[in-house]
Design brief:
This protein is of the alpha+beta class. The chain is about 40% helix and about 20% strand. Strands 1-2 form a two-stranded antiparallel ribbon.
Length: about 120
């Protein structure tokens, strides 16, 4: 069945949708804690920062949190360079990159961030 190109072009247009995806924060048991609607192209760091800030409203003040994120190395670097998170939050996070994503990172990054 042949579909006209104008129909296919309309399927890829984002002008009809305000949300382009979801980002989720999961616990270690794969339960969804929070979801954020992604409403711009690409994976922006402010979505993950919003989830982390929301998370740290709830645990005890002495709890350390392990955070696996496919670009955890870049997120940690950005947080330290630009003070994107309060020091009391940043000092309680141990950033890591999951095995699936670690292989696309350079060797020093794999060593430092592999859980």
């Amino acid at each position: 069945m042949m579909i006209p190109e104008s129909v296919l072009d309309g399927c890829t247009s984002l002008c009809f949708f305000t949300d382009t995806g979801l980002m989720a924060l999961l616990c270690q048991h794969d339960w969804v804690l929070w979801l954020i609607n992604i409403n711009s192209a690409g994976e922006k760091q402010y979505y993950s920062l919003a989830l982390v800030k929301r998370l740290f409203e709830h645990p005890p003040h002495d709890m350390t949190v392990g955070l696996l994120y496919n670009i955890g190395c870049q997120l940690e670097c950005s947080c330290q360079k630009w003070s994107l998170l309060d020091d009391y939050i940043l000092s309680r996070i141990r950033f890591g990159i999951s095995v699936f994503h670690a292989y696309s990172h350079r060797w020093p990054c794999q060593i430092a961030y592999h859980p």
